[in-house]
Every structure is written in structure tokens, then in C-alpha cells.
Write a structure and sequence with these properties.
heterodimer; A: mainly alpha; 0% strand; B: alpha/beta; 6-stranded mixed β-sheet; 3-stranded antiparallel β-sheet; 32% helix; globular
């Protein structure tokens, strides 16, 4: 039984949290960064005060559960996970314990917040909302486990292609810079939109501060030094797509400049919301050179990490501490009045040098093949 | 002609395969070896998918390590069990890879027709059977002007018609373009009309004549 738990944890639970890291960044950022403890308490008391208001968190939990269900379905479609269908051969009791435990861990954020709300419902003697919380979480857990069981018992369902997708496939030939954006939007949409919302909100908040007081360009620089390192989860995925999911890429005679151009085009497509936020809300007191150096600094961060990823195979757990350390470094440099263009230049030179030097020698930790 | 000298490939310090010296001229070379012997690793290293040690050079001096772009223009590779991002169509892949390999649209369309791919050319790969994926992979392996084509298990999952087309194209490429084919197959190639130049077996992590 232990091995079943271990497999389900690795394939479904750990992968789910890794895939949605951007979303959790966003939630933690808002929860711990923007809201204070008394605001959390006030919100919890507000939700639990009436069954009608309680529907708001229940709706959020339901959307979250549907996302978990979609994720589980998608992950079971991957060829490398076909072995997991053997779980259906287990005795029913063992199978269901495994599935419920998996769903429990996947729904843990909702369950923990539910427990937090339950404490206030009990404290204020709101028994109807307490019952709603318990029933809704149990129901979502049950639906999630049922959906997972259904997916396990019905493998290889025929893939339906929508009319619009069919039309696009016939009408256009996708250029390479669009490969990754479509791949990530289909494979991990919540992570994509989570990182976009988080980055855009940070930049929106920072640029709004300029309307209330006088600050120099460093404040925007600090905002970029927070918003763009978050994009590194996407850069890590681009790197993985280029070298792992589409490995034939490494056999293609693509010159360095063209490879870089493809990456920059992909990056520009992915960072349209953040760059748009900088351009649209750029403080009027600064000149166009300040705008250019801000955008250069913003783009230099993903370029730097893209190059760094070629120096050594790093998973996200190993990469994130580096992202944190470098972000602190950039923040310090900005505070010590190092111009943004200078930091951007350092990042670009380092990133491009790493990319050039290590591109062909890079290798994932691989097992010997047949 | 391709010369391989002091080739070695290791994973985390553990040697997988090494070859002291090997010269491949135009024709077919059959690499045999049991599962896990290092055939695919050898192929992927030659195709530039995995880094490796040693000198791998064409007779005009184009070298894997010193001339990575021209080398990759001459070396094409078809995987044993090809997988592509599911949302991409054969059209997306053949047009993109064809462009990088220097294949004009006429050549691309020729292979689409030869491998009978027209009916699913504009459908995403996630809807393909393993045989359809194999045909796509083989069509990609002939794009451009390759001098070395590496085919890992080229005959598995292919229907009889596609198998005959493949063998015919290989024959033409050897006759007309002096291409070197390096292939692995657990199926007996003697049953085909292919004239194999030489057979090698991977034994004790190196290549010996079979």
C-alpha cells in the first residue's frame, strides 16, 4: 500500500503543486503580503455569517476542484503515466483509500481554509454554515476521487478536436515561437494565468504609487525585480519544452542568433501583460530612456535564467532558491542606485554567454537508454 | 564518409558506450544489441541530442563539436518511439523542421505523399496512432540533404506499404545521394532487400563486428 501512496503522491500530488506554483505564489502573495491578520479574520467572519455568503468560498473551492480534476485527467493521458492504470487492478478498498488520500492532499489548501472558517463558525455558533463547509468539502473530495477513478477506468478516450482548432490547423502553420505558449496554455493554464496575474498586479500596484507621491525610478525597478523573477517558472518550462518535450530540437541546425530570436519572441508573447502594464502605466515624469531601460531590465531577468538553466540540470526546487538570491541581489543593487540599464546589461551578457557556452553540452540527468 | 574516433558517452561518470575508431561510408550499417546496451544513446549522441566525447567528423572536416550547425544539417534522426507535443500537427512539424534542414516545400510534400500522410497532415499529433507517428518521424528524417540518417527501429509499427516505401527511399538515397544509414532493428533485416554494408553488435559497452 505504501508504494501506491508513493506513486500517487509523485505522479499526481507533487506534480499538481509544481504545475500550479504560479497560482500558489499569487495566493500566498495576496494572502500574506497584502492582507493583514485582522483582515483575514474579518473576511472569515463575513463568509461564515450567512449561508448565502458562504457560497463564495464554496464556489472558489469548486473551481479549484474542477481544476484538480482536469489536471488529473490530463496527467493520466501522458504516455509516461500509463503504468498508473494498474491501480484499477487493486482491491477496491485499497484503490479508494489511495484515491481519497490523493484528492485530500490535492485539495489541502481548500480544506485548510475550510478548517479556518469552521473555527469561526463554531466560535459564533453558526451551525448552518459549519454544516455547509463540512458537506461541501466532503462532496468535493468525493467528486474528485470519483472523477479520478472514472479516468483510471476509462483510459485512452478519443480526443475531440474543436471546430476552431480544426480551422486554425488547416489555415495556418504555427511558427516556432508559438509552440511553447500554446503548449503551456493547454498543459498548465492555471500556472500561466497565475504568474501573469501576480506579475501584473505587482506592477500595477507599484505604478499606482507614483500617482500619490514622488519616487525615483528605483521603485519601479524594485517592482520589476519582484514581478519578473516570478516568470522564471515559465522560463524553466520553456527550457524543459525545448530540450525534453521536443528533444528533436537539439538535432536541428538552428544558429545561435535564431535560437535567441525564437526565445525572445516566445518571451515577448508570454510577458505581454507585464510589459503592457509597464508601458501603459509608466510614470510621466520619466523619459523614454527610462522606459527602455526598465523594459530591458525586465526582459534581462528571464534571459539570465534561461542561460543559467543550460549550465546544469536543475529542477524547480533547486532553481527557486537561486531565483530568490538573485532577486535580493538585484533589489540591493537598485537600492544602491546602480542604473537599471547596467543591471540589465550584466544579466544579458551573463545569460547569453551561458547559453552560447553550454547549449550543446547541456543534458538532463538521464538514464541510459536501450 | 563519417569518421568516429575515441567516442565515449557516460552518464554521471558511468560509461555507457565507447568506440575507439569507426569509419562509415555510404550504405547501410546495422547496429545490434540487447535492450539497454546503449544503441539509442549512441544514436542520440551522433545526432547531437546528447553531448558526448570524441571526434565525429565528415570527410570534408565538418565536425560535431566544432561545427555544430553544419553537422546537424547533415545528420537526421528518427526515434524508435517518436513523441511530439500533442497539439502540433504534422504540418507544423514538417514545415518547421524542413525549413531548418533546408528542405523546400516540394521535397516536404514528396515525403508527405510517399508516406501517405495527407489524410492526417493537418491533424494534431495527439490523435495519431503509433504507426502514424512513426511515418511522421521517418518523413522528417529524410528532409534536407542529409549525409547520415539514423533510424532507430525503423520497421516497428509500420504497415507493409509504408515499409516498402521506406526501403525504396533508402535505396534511392544510397544510390543517388551516397547517404549513410545507421539503423537498429530487432527484426531480421535479411528478410528485406536491403544490402547491409556491415553489421555491428554492442558488446561490453563497445561496438564489435557482428
Amino acid at each position: 500500500m505504501k508504494i501506491i501512496f508513493s506513486i500517487l503522491q509523485r505522479v499526481l500530488v507533487r506534480e499538481f503543486y509544481r504545475a500550479n506554483a504560479g497560482l500558489f505564489f499569487l495566493v500566498i502573495g495576496i494572502g500574506a503580503g497584502f492582507m493583514r491578520s485582522y483582515e483575514h479574520i474579518a473576511l472569515a467572519e463575513f463568509f461564515t455569517a450567512s449561508p448565502m455568503l458562504m457560497l463564495v468560498p464554496i464556489l472558489v473551492w469548486t473551481i479549484y476542484t474542477f481544476n484538480v480534476m482536469k489536471f488529473n485527467r490530463d496527467i493520466l493521458k501522458r504516455k509516461e503515466n500509463e503504468f498508473i492504470f494498474y491501480i484499477t487492478l487493486l482491491p477496491p478498498s485499497q484503490k479508494w483509500i489511495g484515491l481519497f488520500t490523493t484528492l485530500f492532499y490535492q485539495l489541502l489548501p481548500a480544506i485548510l481554509y475550510g478548517v479556518f472558517l469552521m473555527a469561526f463558525a463554531v466560535k459564533n455558533n453558526f451551525m448552518d454554515t459549519l454544516l455547509m463547509i463540512i458537506l461541501s468539502l466532503l462532496l468535493l473530495l468525493f467528486i474528485g476521487a470519483l472523477a479520478l477513478s472514472h479516468a483510471l477506468h476509462n483510459p485512452n478516450q478519443e480526443k475531440r478536436i474543436g471546430v476552431f482548432t480544426k480551422f486554425l490547423n488547416v489555415s495556418i502553420t504555427k511558427p516556432y515561437p508559438l509552440f511553447f505558449p500554446e503548449w503551456i496554455a493547454k498543459r498548465e493554464p492555471l500556472m500561466l494565468f497565475g504568474t501573469k496575474i501576480f506579475g501584473s498586479l505587482i506592477l500595477l500596484g507599484i505604478t499606482q504609487l507614483y500617482k500619490t507621491d514622488v519616487y525615483d525610478l528605483r521603485l519601479l525597478g524594485l517592482g520589476i525585480a519582484i514581478a519578473f523573477p516570478v516568470q522564471v517558472v515559465l522560463v524553466w518550462e520553456i527550457h524543459r519544452f525545448d530540450n525534453f518535450h521536443f528533444p528533436l530540437n537539439r538535432n536541428l541546425p538552428i544558429p545561435f542568433t535564431l535560437h535567441l530570436l525564437y526565445f525572445l519572441c516566445t518571451l515577448l508573447i508570454l510577458t505581454i501583460p507585464e510589459l503592457g502594464m509597464i508601458i501603459k502605466n509608466f510614470p510621466i515624469e520619466f523619459n523614454s530612456w527610462d522606459l527602455i531601460s526598465s523594459i530591458l531590465f525586465a526582459l534581462s531577468i528571464p534571459v539570465f535564467f534561461y542561460g543559467l538553466l543550460y549550465t546544469k540540470d536543475r529542477d524547480q526546487e533547486k532553481l527557486m532558491p537561486l531565483v530568490f538570491i538573485f532577486s535580493i541581489g538585484w533589489i540591493l543593487l537598485i537600492l544602491f542606485k546602480v542604473p537599471l540599464w547596467a543591471i540589465a546589461s550584466m544579466n544579458l551578457i551573463t545569460g547569453l554567454a551561458c547559453l552560447k557556452k553550454f547549449y550543446y553540452s547541456f543534458e538532463y540527468f538521464s538514464r541510459p537508454e536501450s | 564518409m563519417l569518421t568516429i574516433d575515441n567516442f565515449s558517452k557516460a552518464y554521471s561518470g558511468t560509461k555507457v558506450i565507447s568506440i575507439d575508431s569507426l569509419i562509415l561510408t555510404s550504405g547501410i550499417y546495422w547496429i545490434k544489441g540487447e535492450n539497454g546496451s546503449g544503441k539509442t544513446t549512441f544514436f542520440k549522441s551522433l545526432a547531437g541530442l546528447h553531448p558526448c566525447e570524441g571526434k565525429i567528423q565528415f570527410d570534408d572536416g565538418i565536425d560535431l563539436h566544432n561545427n555544430p550547425i553544419p553537422f546537424r544539417k547533415r545528420v537526421n534522426y528518427s526515434e524508435a518511439e517518436p513523441q511530439y507535443p500533442g497539439f502540433l500537427t504534422s504540418k507544423d512539424l514538417i514545415r518547421f523542421i524542413g525549413k531548418t534542414k533546408g528542405a523546400d516545400q516540394k521535397q516536404q510534400d514528396f515525403f508527405i505523399e510517399q508516406f501517405n500522410m495527407s489524410s492526417y497532415f493537418e491533424k494534431p499529433c495527439e490523435t495519431y496512432s503509433s504507426g502514424m507517428l512513426k511515418k511522421l518521424s521517418l518523413a522528417i528524417a529524410f528532409l534536407g540533404s542529409p549525409k547520415l540518417i539514423i533510424l532507430d527501429e525503423p520497421l516497428i509499427t509500420l504497415d507493409v506499404q509504408a515499409r516498402n516505401v521506406l526501403l525504396q527511399i533508402m535505396e534511392n538515397y544510397i544510390q543517388q545521394h551516397e547517404v549513410t544509414f545507421l539503423l537498429s532493428s530487432h527484426q531480421a533485416l535479411e528478410s528485406t532487400d536491403l544490402k547491409v554494408n556491415e553489421t555491428f553488435v554492442i558488446e561490453n559497452k563497445t561496438l564489435v563486428k557482428g
